[in-house]
């Protein structure tokens, strides 16, 4: 059986370590995407590089309003994302 054959070649890597590594990699990927999106959003809003820090401090308020106005509650959307990525 393939499962038992592969088990013999296991190098002692624990599933929880792989899961944690995948979680960290996904968070880094999403953070990089968020930075790119915020830079693009700042550019479209005519924010200068000097004003980017202020933009980053104030814009999340607008995002929170959008999240709360969405027809599907935030908790439901978080649950769906959690199940999609099987992070638990």
Give your account of this protein's structure.
With 88 residues, the protein is mainly alpha-helical. The chain has one domain. Helix content is 76%, strand content 0%. The protein contains 4 helices and no strands. It has helices spanning 2-8, 15-44, 52-69, 74-85. It is flat and about 60 Å long.
In angstroms, what separates the terminal alpha carbons? 28 Å
Low-confidence stretches: none
Order of helices and strands: HHHH
In total, the number of strands is 0
Query: Main sheet, how many strands, which sense, barrel?
Result: none
Total number of helical segments? 4
Radius of gyration: 20 Å
Structural class: mainly alpha
Mean pLDDT: 88
Measured by DSSP, the beta-strand proportion falls in under 5%
Write the layout of secondary structure elements.
Layout: H1 2-8, H2 15-44, H3 52-69, H4 74-85
